[in-house]
Amino acid sequence: MLALPLILLVSSSAPVSLGAPRDVSALAPQAGSASHAAPWEAAALVAHAAPREGFASHATLRDASAPLVAYAAPQAGSTPAATSGTQAVLVPAPESRDVLLRRQVAQVALAQVRKQDPAWHPDQRDCAGLIRFAVRTAYKRIAPARLETPLWTDARGTPTDFADAETLVRRNMVLLGRDDATRESLRTGDVLAFLHEHDSGPVFHLMLVVRPEDRAHAPARVVYHPGEKGAQVRTGLLHNLADEAPREWRPVPSNNAFVGYFRLKEWMP
C-alpha cells in the first residue's frame, strides 16, 4: 500500500538569513527532496515535497499559458457619465484600493508559479515569504506610500519588515473561521493555516487564496511554496484540497492540524 504524501514545511523558528533584504521573508528554506504530484492532484494542486514511488512527477498549472489577467474579474459597475449626441458614453466606476490590491496579489502570486521573480530573494522563498512578497509587491504598485512604515508586527507588537509564518498568523491576521461557510466567503489574499507538531516543535504552513471578484469567472485557488530549497511555487483548486488532499492537509473542521482561514488585519472587514 502506498504511503500518503507529505508536505515538507518550514518551521517558524527557522533562523533569519543574514544576507537577505529586510523587506522580504528571511526564513531559511528547509532542505528536502524533489517535489512530486499525487493522484488527488488531478486539477493541478501539487502539495508534496517528498517523492513517492508510483506518483507522476511535477504536475504543473493547467492554464500556465493563459494570461494572469484571467484570474482578475472584469471591471464592475460601469456607469453612464456623459452623452455625445444621442449616444451614452460609459465610464468605468472607480475601483477601490482594496480591489486593486487583491488583484495585484493574485497576479504576483500566480506569476511565481510560472517563474519566480528574481526580486524575491532565494533564501527567503517559503510559504510565509510568498505571502509577504505578494502583499508587498501589491502595495508597491498600488499604494507605495504604505511602505514608508513596516507592513508587519512582531511578537512584541513592534513594527517590522519581517514576520515568519507563526507571527503572520498570530500577530498580523484575524481568524475568519474553520467551516465550509467561511471557505465560501474567502477572498484573494486570505490565508489557510496549518500547524503540525514535531519533535523539534510546532511547524506552521500557509497557503494563499486567489479568488476572482466575479466568482462565476473561475474557481478559487490556493497558491503556496512548499518550503524546501529550490522548490517551485504550487497552485491548485481550493475545493480539491478540501476534498482530496491527505487528511492532515484538508482545510476542514475535523482536521485538528487545520488552524483556520485568516485575513490580514489591514484588510478587515
What this model shows, in words?
- Mean pLDDT is 75; it is low at 1-80.
- This protein has 5 helices and 10 strands; from the N terminus they run E-E-H-H-E-E-H-E-H-E-E-E-E-H-E.
- The longest helix has 18 residues, at 97-114.
- The protein has helices at residues 97-114, 127-142, 165-172, 180-184, 238-244, and strands at 79-84, 87-91, 152-153, 159-160, 173-177, 191-198, 201-210, 221-224, 234-237, 258-264.
- The strands form 3 sheets. A 6-stranded antiparallel β-sheet has the order 5-10-6-7-8-9. A two-stranded antiparallel sheet has the order 1-2. Strands 3-4 form a two-stranded antiparallel sheet.
- The chain starts with 78 loop residues before the first strand and ends in a 5-residue tail after the last strand.
- With 269 residues, the chain is α+β, with helices and mostly antiparallel strands.
- 20% of the residues lie in helices and 20% in strands.
- The protein is globular.
Draw up the topology in text.
Layout (H helix, E strand, L loop, with lengths): L78 E6 L2 E5 L5 H18 L12 H16 L9 E2 L5 E2 L4 H8 E5 L2 H5 L6 E8 L2 E10 L10 E4 L9 E4 H7 L13 E7 L5
Antiparallel strand pairs: 1-2, 3-4, 5-10, 6-7, 6-10, 7-8, 8-9
Helix pairs in contact: 1-2
Terminus-to-terminus distance: 46 Å
Q: Describe the largest sheet.
A: 6 strands, antiparallel
* H/E element sequence: EEHHEEHEHEEEEHE
How are strands sequenced across the largest beta sheet? 5-10-6-7-8-9
Radius of gyration: 19 Å
How many helical elements?
5
Percentage of β-strand residues: 15-25%
- Low-confidence parts: 1-80
Structure class: alpha+beta
Indicate the percent of residues in helices: 10-25%
Mean pLDDT reading? 75
Number of strands: 10
- The coarse overall form would be globular
